[in-house]
Amino acid sequence: MKRVFQGDSRLIDTIDKCGNALWLGILFLLCCIPVITAGASMSAFYHTMVKCVINERSYVTKEFFQTFRRVFLRATICWLVTAAVLLLLFINREYCARELEGMYSVVMVAGCDVLIFLVFCFALYLFPVISGFELDVKTMLRLDLSIMAGKP
After folding, report:
1. C-beta of residue 36 within 8 angstroms of C-beta of residue 42
2. Most exposed: 42, 46, 96, 120, by fewest CB within 10 Å?
3. What is the pLDDT of residues 3-20, one digit of tens each?
4. DSSP of the chain
5. Closest by alpha carbon to 88, among 118, 115, 126?
6. pTM, whole model, 2 decimals?
7. pLDDT at residue 50 tops 60
8. What is the pLDDT of residues 58-111, one digit of tens each?
């Protein structure tokens, strides 16, 4: 029983990982408050979670903000494009749902829903790719699509 509360025990290690993950989540939310920086925050969150919390290599706050600075421009541009596409698809979906009638409305809304889902799937892998690789945009998008399709 004495060994449970020592610094190298499994319980303390688990509590430390949970605390780091919680702190990382707070940093992520704080950096997403200005919506423009959400892409850089997602990339930094993913990179820091893998490097610090899972592999136990560095300090969470320091690593988060270093990664945030490193990926800021690429991730912000990709986030703004993704958010604009999602916004346009959502506006189109709402227009189709309210203004069109009959089977045509159902088909258009379902088509918009499928496209929204695909953009979300694309964005799910885009920000980890941004955080892990220094690639040009074309190569990054191609890698993201191949991961999304399940063929890395």
Report:
1. no
2. 120
3. 656 666 778 778 888 888
4. -GGGGSTTSHHHHHHHHHHHHHHHHHHHHHHTSSGGGHHHHHHHHHHHIIIIIIT--S-HHHHHHHHHHHHHHHHHHHHHHHHHHHHHHHHHHHHHHHH--HHHHHHHHHHHHHHHHHHHHHHHHHHHHHHH----HHHHHHHHHHHHTT--
5. 115
6. 0.78
7. yes
8. 788 888 999 999 999 888 988 999 999 999 999 999 988 888 888 888 888 899
